[in-house]
Here is the input.
Amino acid sequence: MSENDKLKKRAAEILKRLEKEYPAAKCHLEFRNPFELLVSTILSAQCTDARVNMIMTPLYENKYKSPDDILADGLENFRENIKSCNFFNNKAKSVLAICNILKKDYNGKVPDSLEELTKLPGIGRKSANVILGNCFGKKDVIIVDTHFKRVTGRLGLTDNDEPEKIEADLKKLIPPAKQYVFSHVIGDHGRYVCGARKPKCGVCVLNDVCPSDSLKK
DNA sequence: CTCCCGATAT
DNA sequence: ATATCAGGAG
Here is the structure.
């Protein structure tokens, strides 16, 4: 068996166990349509989903129902509303710029291709893949966020540090139809067990297939 | 590579 | 006190 086949087999075993562990794994951001997820995804950078939801869910219901609503409210007001998220200045500018682009080029709708999404200011590959997977039903998306990078690295599924290379590495290991699910169960595992500071190796269902012995003590 | 630049857990 | 939170742009 080749080295890549061994890795593939281990990735399949990891996916199997995590699917059992997190049967309801999904996006933790609250949204009712692609526009809401687009905005919340920008705000979620270096900030917890719980905080984004706390701020934005009431605003979507009462105030920001469309790009026009955010544009009408203006940059200053929007920035004040999202102040408790991180990087509020850049995020507010990105959101307002995107609202203008959606209005001008997309008839107010969110585009559904990686190329178009990543052209939008504040939307990189991670955010684009979140939208494609959660709003447009795309299954062959590997979503590389900070959790994904940490957990797949510890599991020895990639040697790379660069998000785009990690994405490519895992696309070779996980079948296309399973990539969306894999992204979410890895995310949940990173959040609940394989945390950045004190990974709970004692209760980890992947303990025996994880090569990161230094973490286990 | 740096900057962005708030809230929370440890 | 500090590392980290579902990153992206210049």
